[in-house]
Amino acid sequence: MAGVAEPQNRQARPIPPPQSRGPPPLARPRSEPVDREKTCPLLLRVFTKIGGHHPQEDFAVRGKEPKDEVQIYTWKDATLRELTDLVKEVAPAARKRDAKLSFAFVYPDKNGHFVVRPVGMTHSHGNGRRMDDHQTLADLSFQIGDYLSVAII
């Protein structure tokens, strides 16, 4: 019988169970910080709503987006905590001690229909209670031109 000879001193490795096969999970890449002195900020259109996110139908017609819009100039390395603090400046409901802010990106899918994709949540008063505070727009795959929906709960 012909075959490849195995070296005598080779030790057998255990075969991993099926669910763990494949490449090891990669750590989520952290985005590079932006030099805010040299980099032009982007315009982020933010739509706030008390109780939940705007439904995707609210964004279906260009120019007829929800009226509760706030425009923020920021960078892709802005964290959800930074955005929380900015929203608190313009939305009194977001300042309540027990308020939670849910963030979602709003963008058109390949068919042109808008999608509302939740990406994170923060508490109005951080106190280190949420890991999402330190997530940046870039970490969450934000694309310039996406809208940001903020549900104040």
Describe this structure in words.
This protein has a 5-stranded mixed beta sheet with strand order 2-1-5-3-4, covered by helices on one side. It has one helix at 80-90, and strands spanning 42-50, 69-74, 100-108, 114-123, 147-152. The protein has a domain at 47-152: Ubiquitin-like (UB roll), CATH 3.10.20.550. The chain is 7% helix and 26% strand. The N and C termini lie far apart (71 Å). The radius of gyration is 22 Å and the shape is globular. The chain has 1 helix and 5 strands; from the N terminus they run ββαβββ. It is mainly beta and 153 residues long.
Task: Give the secondary structure arrangement, pairings included.
Blueprint: E1 42-50, E2 69-74, H1 80-90, E3 100-108, E4 114-123, E5 147-152
Parallel strand pairs: 1-5
Antiparallel strand pairs: 1-2, 3-4, 3-5
